[in-house]
Amino acid sequence: MSQESYTLKALANITGATLQGDPNRKIHGIASLAQAKSGELSFVADETYLSQLASSEATAVIIPADCANACHTDALVVPNAKLAFIKVAQLFHPVSSPSPGCHPTAVVGEHSTIHPSAYVGPHVVLGDHVTIGADVVLGPGTSVGDHVSIGAGSVFHSNVTVYPHCVIGERAVIHSGVVIGADGFGFTPNAAKHWVKVPQVGRVVIGHDVEIGANTTIDRGALDDTTLGDGVKIDNLVMIGHNVTVGQHTLICGCTGIAGSTAIGQHCTIGGASTINGHIRIADHVVLAGASGVMKSIAEAGAYGSAMLLQPIREWKKSLLRYWKLGDLFHRVRKLELSQGKQHDNDQ
Amino acid sequence: MSQESYTLKALANITGATLQGDPNRKIHGIASLAQAKSGELSFVADETYLSQLASSEATAVIIPADCANACHTDALVVPNAKLAFIKVAQLFHPVSSPSPGCHPTAVVGEHSTIHPSAYVGPHVVLGDHVTIGADVVLGPGTSVGDHVSIGAGSVFHSNVTVYPHCVIGERAVIHSGVVIGADGFGFTPNAAKHWVKVPQVGRVVIGHDVEIGANTTIDRGALDDTTLGDGVKIDNLVMIGHNVTVGQHTLICGCTGIAGSTAIGQHCTIGGASTINGHIRIADHVVLAGASGVMKSIAEAGAYGSAMLLQPIREWKKSLLRYWKLGDLFHRVRKLELSQGKQHDNDQ
Amino acid sequence: MSQESYTLKALANITGATLQGDPNRKIHGIASLAQAKSGELSFVADETYLSQLASSEATAVIIPADCANACHTDALVVPNAKLAFIKVAQLFHPVSSPSPGCHPTAVVGEHSTIHPSAYVGPHVVLGDHVTIGADVVLGPGTSVGDHVSIGAGSVFHSNVTVYPHCVIGERAVIHSGVVIGADGFGFTPNAAKHWVKVPQVGRVVIGHDVEIGANTTIDRGALDDTTLGDGVKIDNLVMIGHNVTVGQHTLICGCTGIAGSTAIGQHCTIGGASTINGHIRIADHVVLAGASGVMKSIAEAGAYGSAMLLQPIREWKKSLLRYWKLGDLFHRVRKLELSQGKQHDNDQ
């Protein structure tokens, strides 16, 4: 963390904000509304934050114009408080990169090209014919297979694995434990009903500005490639099957599983713990609520959900029993209708 | 495994049990009721184990008083058979710690303090300003970031990653592949609808006596910290989002996902594969059945569930169709009611 | 990838196919129907592929007899196109093994036996009394505990962890990040309602020809062993609890969780993201659809499912409300029935 402090005037310049209050007020750090102490800057994303603002000890806040009147502290008024706060956060918490070079414990294969500005950490293993771009950082214990290419500015945390022939774009952020390019899950039964492995000879090809969360796995394609478009963001413990394609700027939250050969559109938001069937297509701009199950293709943009109600355990068990008896209920209603129809006939 | 044997008398002393049978009987190992052979000790947790006891070859069992009459073998009678059995298990399977010291292949940064009784295994990487407490064991390939502190008696298995600035309490057990402190999943769209990363500058702060299962991930906070209270136990492949707080002595079973900024109470039991929404609160002493989905806060202690019925595939598809037509059914019943009301009016 | 090319005649010999077309046609690679270019061979698994075949640029295809008439390209006609295509794929993409030997950065404990034909990669750590069979490959950063045995021909990718005393059969394929033998999740509350760890002293015992996907975890047994039968195939991010047994030739798709002490039969197919309760039995030849939740034992072979419908968000919320009111609806229908019965009585 930086020990610097900035005046509100300086922060207003950096964020393009209109300053409301004392331009010479010193700010030495950032914090949430709940945790901020004197001398710290926080932010109000929208009106839902105003109740927290009331009791906050923050010295100043970044705030959108439509909330600024309610503000009792000094304020930096901006159109988008989150984006402005990000700029300030980067100021107080600059990303520090290790000095370039290969750690002496790293093992580098033959015919590999490492840009002189890149950092290859302790116990990293690079195969043959690997290409590492400018300013790349490879954290401890990362293992990179033959013929892999990693674009400029990408940061790999610790214990990442990339299998041979995969391609990672520029400015990727790959968190610890991620596995890119493991074999897709392809087996076919032989006459004895034993599973025979289908060779998985495609690659994983990842665009620019992609972030992948801890312990997520992205399988290589069977024949064609598994691809992630530019700007895709994936959370932790997500499973992307072989031959999946994810369109640009799609966001996939944690614990989601996407089965093989499915095509996800651009600008989608996939809620956490969703389950997406294989061999389907999901349109652009689809939003899935958390824990959604998707069995069929989704042809139209929009928001979808399928998660069930949580109930106290007795109610839940009764609900299951009722669900089980729904067929009966439909029959009973049909019977009532028929009987009433007859009644109706009798009446006439 | 120990090659020692103990008399039943000795085991009764150790467990505080009332001995029923031959005090000089020798016991040389422990086993389940199903697998136990002559000379081995097993246990009966409660009356549900009695059917297995009948056919067990165990020489003796640990058994609660209310089951002891049914016991045909020598027995150690105790109030809590599981706790007593744990004591005996520790006797026959003592945990062996490696000799203190840093393996020569470990890489240790500057200004780091490693207690002389700690063990730092092969290919471990410690950053700068790391503090490793007494009797800590760090397994092979573990990577610990700058400014991390690990409390006395903690055991890390292999290939664990801890990001910078995180704090681990005393006597933690961290299984292989765990990732502590990766960036939370925080992005906000810019004008072009590209995702801009929100810096994740909080920490993970873990109390004492916490166990974390294999390949689980615990994200660092965005601004505030992600925290796990004392005595929290987390199973494998669990995902804890940024700014989550988990209260003391809460148990979280495998494959569960908890989205960001949610507060879980103390002494909760979260069933496996549960999905918990972000920004909600779960009261103390809540029990969730397996595969529960929690969309809203839970204000009251108690047991809850939401998982659906498994059905043969045809029934399942019919159930989905009925569920789809529930709106219709409600309309049809309303119509019947109205019609009957009219009928009723006619009758009068 | 091999740079070889083969004549169709040669490929017909290798696959036992009936050749339809020019025997001297040269094939230099394989591809999917969609991506194949001139000179490449693809395959038609069944009639569902025929629409893609029409527009494919593949020079030739492997095709089953009942589809061969529809084929406009040269063709290798076989009974099972997938199995034949696997043979050809292995030809063009032979698996290359590293040269035998221990990398100088590997750390090997005492009393361990490594077959001279095995390869132990960079930064691998083997404990004491480890046995590594013929032709085994251990990828970078893999950690193998004391007394582990790994059968001939097994391939471990990077950063795998095997805890002490586990047994892996022959020809296993273990993908990166897999954790075998971590402690099962066994805790029991003491008088203070703190969780006391139950020692986990069983093993994981894995048969022959097993494949385990990236970041999957298989916990060791508490007292008895966790076992996977011969030919079991497990996908990524699967969680197998302690004392689970999986029968021979069962397939488990990604993101599935199986709680402790459950017995899965032989030749089952477990759909992705399924959740299986502990202490239950699943018969042989059971097929679970994706995202199935299994609370109780399944006694009969057959296909089962439980996943819910995805709906547009408004419909979904209405469905939840209707589900919530199902109890009411049952009451209303009962009331209608009673009232109609009375009506009926009145009529008579």
What would you say this structure looks like, in words?
- 3 copies of one chain form a homotrimer.
- Chain A is α/β, with parallel strands linked by helices and about 350 residues long.
- Helices cover about 15% and strands about 30% of the residues of chain A.
- In chain A, the strands form 6 sheets. An 11-stranded parallel sheet of chain A has the order 8-11-14-17-20-25-28-31-34-37-39, with no helix packed on it. A 10-stranded parallel sheet of chain A has the order 9-12-15-18-21-26-29-32-35-38, with no helix packed on it.
- In chain A, strand 5 (about 40-45), helix 2 (about 50-55) and strand 6 form a beta-alpha-beta unit.
- Chain A starts with 5 loop residues before the first strand and ends with a helix.
- In chain A, about 55% of the residues are buried.
- Chains in contact: A-B, A-C, B-C.
- Chains A and B meet through helix 3, strand 40, helix 4 and helix 5 of A and strand 23, strand 38, strand 39, helix 4 and helix 5 of B.
- Strand 40 of chain B pairs antiparallel with strand 39 (about 300-305) of chain C, so a sheet runs across the interface.
